[in-house]
TrEMBL record, chain A:
GO terms for cellular component: plasma membrane. It is found in: Cell membrane. Its main location: membrane. Belongs to the ThrE exporter (TC 2.A.79) family. This is Threonine/serine exporter family protein. It holds the Pfam family ThrE. The keyword Transferase does not apply. Residues 9-246 form the Threonine/serine exporter-like N-terminal domain. Keywords: Cell membrane, Membrane, Transmembrane, Transmembrane helix. InterPro entries: ThrE-like_N, ThrE_Dicarb/AminoAcid_Exp. The keyword Transmembrane applies.
From TrEMBL, chain B:
This is Threonine/serine exporter family protein. GO terms for biological process: succinate transport. It is found in: Cell membrane. The keyword Cell membrane applies. The keyword Transport does not apply. Residues 5-132 form the Threonine/Serine exporter ThrE domain. One of its GO terms (cellular component) is plasma membrane. It comes from Ruminiclostridium herbifermentans. Keywords: Cell inner membrane, Cell membrane, Membrane, Transmembrane, Transmembrane helix.
Length: 251, 145
């Protein structure tokens, strides 16, 4: 296969990985594997906002490709598919068109539908409210709040809203709604409702992958992910604190 | 206590669905959370320290997901991420925040440091098991090439 085509395939695979929250070492290893399986040497640097790839022929020719990644999500299924794609390439190098088609398939792989995801989000809140010693009533309220939050977050993040503001607003809504409901229905314990509802928003993936990146020596990528996690936690905390301190004083 | 382990099982399954996990691995991901929480509870019972209990819970999750990753050839963090959800100190973090809002800063500092310590011990637990697996398996990989 042409060196430019190899660079294109490798870039596309790396982009899917990075966009869906893979660790830096996984992106670099996958790209090297893809280049090797077509008989070229690959060199790659990945941090959490972009990838730089050089494909090198045995006689020293070089094609370089840079890809900037703006949006990051978490999608375990796509990472797994790319992982097995790059493993299969070693034994069975696909032609350019075939590889392109497989990558497109992975890119357009099915997600769980919005309904299922909203159900999962509400059940997460329900389970964790019970888990932190809440009553069933608390859990129900928390589930209902997180249905709303998840729906709004899904729509707003597609509209491309600023991340800090997004999480600040979610925190604000969670705090205000739980406090309001506690005033309406005195049996509800606001603290339990809030702890259940914020679990869905916690950046567990950014946190663990940041730690793993640092462990593997990718300090740039790791500290970027950790600071993303801290930003989300702080934004959410400030949102809840705003709601509570304003409303508690006012009432 | 059995109820909490069952809740931890479901508490790992539902976040995993949010992260679009492969449908065949949903059960295994839930098992990861249940095992992690069972170890946490066992150690909490003996030591009464959430920090040590979280550390060993995270090690158990790390060992489970890294070994499963090698058995069925899939990235480890598909199990790691859902598995740590029950251990995440969400309640402690919220209590710290609540104390800040109530202007009770010394209590907030107390809870805040505990939260950081628990989060750090989860991180170190995962690091520990991943590093050991990497050490064992990287030696093999060099020979194979």
């Amino acid at each position: 296969m042409d060196i430019k085509e190899v660079a294109e395939i490798a870039t596309a695979a790396g982009e899917i990985l990075l966009r869906n929250g893979a660790e830096a070492y996984r992106v670099e290893e996958t790209i090297k594997k893809i280049c090797n399986s077509y008989g070229y040497e690959g060199e790659c640097i990945s941090n959490s906002t972009g990838i730089f790839i050089s494909v090198i022929t045995p006689d020293g020719h070089m094609v370089t490709s840079v890809k900037r990644i703006n949006q990051r999500d978490v999608d375990l299924y796509r990472i797994e598919r790319i992982n097995s794609f790059s493993r299969d390439l070693i034994n069975n190098p696909l032609s350019y068109e075939e590889a392109k088609k497989v990558l497109k398939d992975i890119y357009n792989a099915p997600n769980f539908s919005l309904g299922v995801r909203i159900f999962a989000a509400s059940m997460t809140a329900f389970v964790y409210t019970l888990f932190f010693n809440g009553t069933v009533l608390d859990a129900l309220v928390s589930a209902i709040i997180s249905i709303g939050i998840y729906y709004v977050l899904d729509k707003l993040s597609k509209a491309g809203m600023f991340q800090f503001l997004l999480y600040y607003l979610s925190g604000l809504i969670i705090g205000a709604v739980s406090l309001g409901l506690q005033l309406l229905i005195p049996q509800i314990n606001m603290d339990n409702v809030i702890t259940g509802a914020i679990i869905v928003l916690l950046p567990g993936v950014a946190f663990t992958n940041g730690i793993k990146d640092i462990l593997y020596g990718d300090y740039v990528s790791g500290s970027a992910k950790l600071s993303e996690a801290i930003l989300i936690i702080v934004a959410m905390g400030v949102g809840i604190a705003t709601a509570l301190s304003l409303l508690l004083k006012w009432i | 206590m059995i109820i909490k382990i069952i809740l931890a099982f479901f508490g790992s399954i539902f976040p995993a669905i949010l992260f679009n996990i492969d449908r065949r691995k949903i059960f295994l991901a839930g098992l990861c959370g249940a095992i992690g929480w069972a170890i946490y509870q066992l150690l909490f019972y003996f030591t009464q320290s959430p920090i040590i209990a979280s550390f060993f819970g995270a090690i158990a999750i790390g060992i489970y997901s890294e070994s499963l990753a090698r058995i069925i050839k899939t990235p480890a963090f598909g199990f790691l991420i859902p598995g740590i959800f029950p251990l995440v100190p969400g309640y402690k973090a919220y209590t710290a925040l609540r104390h800040i809002v109530e202007n009770n800063l010394s209590a907030a500092l107390d809870k805040g440091i505990l939260t950081l310590a628990v989060a750090g011990s989860i991180g170190f637990g995962i690091m520990f098991s991943t590093a050991i697996f990497k050490m064992i398996f990287s030696g093999k990989r060099v020979k194979r090439i």
